[in-house]
Every structure is written in C-alpha cells, then in structure tokens.
Amino acid sequence: MVYVGTFSKTLLPGLRLGFAVVPPTLRSAVRSARAAADGHGPVATEAALARFMDEGLLARHIRRTSKVYAERRSAVLSGLTGPLAPYLEPVPSAAGLHVCALPRPEAGSAVAATADAVAARARAAGVAVGTLRTYQASSGGPAGLVLGYGAIDAADVPAGLELLAAAFRSVTPR
C-alpha cells in the first residue's frame, strides 16, 4: 500500500509540499521516478517543515485546527437543518473544508434550476458560495451548492446561511 498526501490543506496551499509513504520494496522505484521528474524539492522549505514536525508543532496545529473546522462544519450542517432545510440536503462527507448540498427532492426542479441564480444572489449579498456545476467535467451532473467553511468564523456562519436562505426565497417560486 502507498499513501500519498500533501501539506497544502493542513498548513497552506502555497507551501506546495507533498509526501509519499511507500513500502521498502518500492522505495528505489519511487526515488528514481522522483529524480526523473524533478530531481528534488525545495530543500530549505523541506528542512523548515521537518523541524516544525520534529518539534511537535504540526501535530499541535492539526489538533487546534481540527477543532476549529469541526465547529464550523457543525454550524453549516445546522443551517442545512434550519433555514436551508426547505431547499437543500447535505451530501454525506467526512473530508474537506466544505459541505456539498443537493436540492431536496420535494423542492424539485425549481431549486435545481436556480442554483446559479441563488449563488449569484448570495455572492451579491456577501456570501461566497459555489455551485457543483463549476466542479463538473461534463454537463448533466447534479445541481447543487458547495458551502465552504475554511475561511469563515463559526460565529459568522448562521448569518451567512440566513442570507443564503434569503437568496433562495428571492429566486424560487413560492
């Protein structure tokens, strides 16, 4: 088994450092592939990250941010059972800094057809929300919204979700 990951999500996207945990039988092949691809990574950045990890600061950072993101996620999910309940239901997920939500079946095509309009209206009100359509490789996928919570304080989530619900009310038939 090979495990590949990145520090972009746990630390910062601009870091552009990743890692691979490989069994001893594959190490030589992986080293050769790395050398053929780009030789080596940024030595000073890798050394600083190694020290950060050795001193236990990465583990401390992950423990702290996990609590912060769990609180934010909980606030978003609460909004999907509150003001957004008539319109959206969350897609089950255990990873990422976002919640995807699909139109409720009882809301029908009215909500699905207005995902772009709702997102635009929400953005105009100061709520950054994306549509699933922007992540689809081809047309015909499900309509829905992507509610990110990586850059918002948990205390601000309810007000943002109220504005999003108002955007739904303004563009969907009554």
UniProtKB/TrEMBL annotation:
Positions of the Aminotransferase class I/classII large domain: 2-132
GO molecular function per UniProt: pyridoxal phosphate binding
Signal peptide residue numbers: none
Protein name: Aminotransferase class I/classII large domain-containing protein
UniProt source species: Jiangella anatolica
